[in-house]
Specification:
Chain lengths: ~260, ~300
């Protein structure tokens, strides 16, 4: 065992693990030490009970409840590991390590107008962010079909929803809606790479500051394996170097990300 | 109980080492691990100049293992000397530097640069499956393995470990060749070449198509190879390949390894080395083993 002065995995009790919509679930964990340390935009490693599934699954933190010492994780079934998580029941234990990564950067008294942009499973970490940011918040979130977390986001700002099939809100992707409404503000975004690429272009065109939370296949989650890299602008022959999404990110300044 | 071992004249406080590329230069593990309890930190591959590494995706899980295609991304030997050696020297542990190269000249260049550096071992990596040229090419041909070992040994000021590839017809042939080339020790096994396909997208998951398979899935192959090499050459062996527990480590030592390296387990649990050390001690206690060296190669 690691000595008490060293960090290690924590066995956390599952307070709640419920289905939200389609393949999306919410897990609430009792983990006071992680709740105390965590900030918006960070993630935790969840470990499967199944011995053949070795790697942790990095899951972004949707909400931090520091008072009750809990974190809320909203995750989609994307493979066998997340499918296993969905089968866990209330009261079960799960091994957790974290929080990890550099979350969104903002001063506690930050009051400028902000534009919060999410796509699909990139939406969850934006709930905690919306909760913590002050000032006028405009929130744009896009989904393939069925949206989720909308009611929670509506507590913190004006929410625009887009869907690919047009079943709810604006038909099309989030950047198309940004263009149509001419929305402006400092951008905080999390979502699939094509969306982030569009958001970066939109920010550039309108001269907006933007922070992007990236996603990549991870190994360890804490910088040990150098598996989850992204291209970041650098003065090298190729104009970029590879940085670790887990440790140097997952949130990067849009200006430094090379898509 | 005595856990101390000796590899090529260097005393390690215990047989626990870290497998190159799974422990960085230790920094990421400092919050989790008492570095003073590790026999030797084997750092991530270092080349004479910075290497970019491969594009993402670089990692994919497999049943009981994982495949990586990192491609030896590293900031180069100068950064290593300036930043990583002073960091590691804060702790009471030995340092082995894994040498990356594409040509004999590149291997010689990095070994020469380290001649005056404060490190305890050099580990010649002629078995990385994730770079296009060099690397593994030296590890799968006995003649080339001997040549590169000889060339690096000539300039090396520290004991030279040569890391062997399992992706060969007969690993003992390569082991004999590096022994003849002047190696002071061998480490094995590096990863097995493997691949995974995304059947929905009908494409390989890794950017390089294939990568190095590691983790508990490969342990039986590693045990067999350590035993074969131990039965063939006289050099000390550092055994690795899927060590997850103290019992796994003991199994490698019984197969003929003097030192053992923890690799993939570090990525699955940053505290792995500490747990494995504790479990080894418990095993020794339960079995009344006074000196860990007494079990090395005992299966023979």
């Amino acid at each position: 065992m690691c000595q008490t002065s060293y960090k290690s995995k924590i066995n956390c009790k599952i307070i709640k693990n419920v289905h939200l919509v389609d393949q999306v679930y919410e897990m609430v964990l009792d983990c006071p030490s992680i709740a105390m340390e965590a900030s918006a935009g960070q993630f935790v490693n969840l470990y499967c009970h199944h011995k053949g599934r070795l790697l942790p699954r990095p899951i972004s933190i949707c909400e931090i409840d520091r008072e009750q010492g809990r974190i809320h994780l909203v995750y989609a079934i994307l493979g066998d590991g997340t499918a296993e998580f969905a089968s866990y029941v209330e009261g079960e234990q799960i091994e957790v390590l974290g929080p990890f990564g550099n979350g969104f950067k903002f001063a506690p008294d930050y009051e400028e107008d902000v534009l919060i942009i999410g796509g699909g499973v990139g939406t969850p970490p934006l709930v905690q962010l919306a909760k913590e940011l002050k000032g006028k918040k405009t929130i744009v979130v896009g989904f393939r079909s069925n949206p989720y977390l909308i009611e929670r986001l509506e507590k913190y700002g004006k929410v625009f929803v887009t869907t690919d099939d047009g079943s709810t809100g604006f038909k099309g992707h989030v950047v198309a809606l940004l263009e149509e409404k001419g929305l402006l503000g400092n951008i905080y975004a999390c979502g699939p790479t094509p969306m982030l690429k569009g958001v970066k272009a939109y920010a550039n065109k309108n001269n907006l500051k933007a922070q992007l939370s990236l996603e990549e296949r991870m190994g360890c989650g804490f910088g040990g394996c150098v598996g989850c890299v992204t291209k970041v602008v650098a003065e090298t022959e190729l104009g970029y170097v590879y940085k670790k999404v887990c440790k140097d990110g997952p949130v990067f300044d849009a200006k430094e990300v090379v898509f | 109980m005595n856990l101390g071992i000796n590899i090529a004249g260097v005393e390690l406080k215990n047989p626990i080492m870290t497998a190159s590329g799974t422990f960085g230069s230790g920094r990421e593990y400092e919050p989790y691990v008492d570095m003073n309890k590790i026999g030797c930190v084997v750092v991530k591959g270092v080349a004479n100049v910075p290497w970019m590494g491969n594009p993402a995706p670089r990692i994919v899980e497999t049943y009981g293992g994982m495949i990586n295609a990192v491609g030896l991304q590293n900031p180069g030997v100068e950064v290593f000397i300036e930043e990583d050696i002073p960091f590691l020297r804060q702790f009471d542990t030995k340092i082995a530097v894994n040498l990356a190269g594409r040509t004999i000249e590149e291997y010689v260049a990095v070994a020469s640069r380290l001649a005056t550096a404060d490190v305890d071992f050099l580990e010649l990596n002629i078995s990385c499956p994730n770079i296009k040229e060099g690397g593994v090419a030296f590890g799968i041909d006995a003649n080339m393995a001997m040549k590169v070992t000889e060339a690096v040994k000539k300039v090396a000021k520290q004991p030279l470990i040569v890391k062997l590839s399992p992706n060969v017809t007969d690993i003992t042939e390569i082991a004999r060749a590096v022994e003849a080339g002047g190696a002071d020790a061998v480490s094995l096994i590096n990863t097995l070449i493997g691949s995974r396909i995304d059947i929905h997208k009908r494409q390989f998951i890794l950017s390089t198509k294939h990568g190095g398979l590691s983790g508990p899935a490969i342990k039986p192959v590693a045990i067999r190879m350590v035993y074969q090499v131990a039965s063939t050459i006289g050099l000390p062996i550092i055994g690795m390949g899927g060590i997850m527990t103290g019992e796994d480590a003991i199994e490698f030592m019984m197969a003929g390894a003097t030192g053992i390296a923890v690799g993939t387990a570090n990525l699955l649990d940053p505290c792995a080395t500490m747990k494995i050390l504790d479990e080894m001690l418990i095993f020794m206690q339960n079995k009344g083993i006074e000196n860990i060296n007494d079990i090395v190669g005992i299966v023979n």
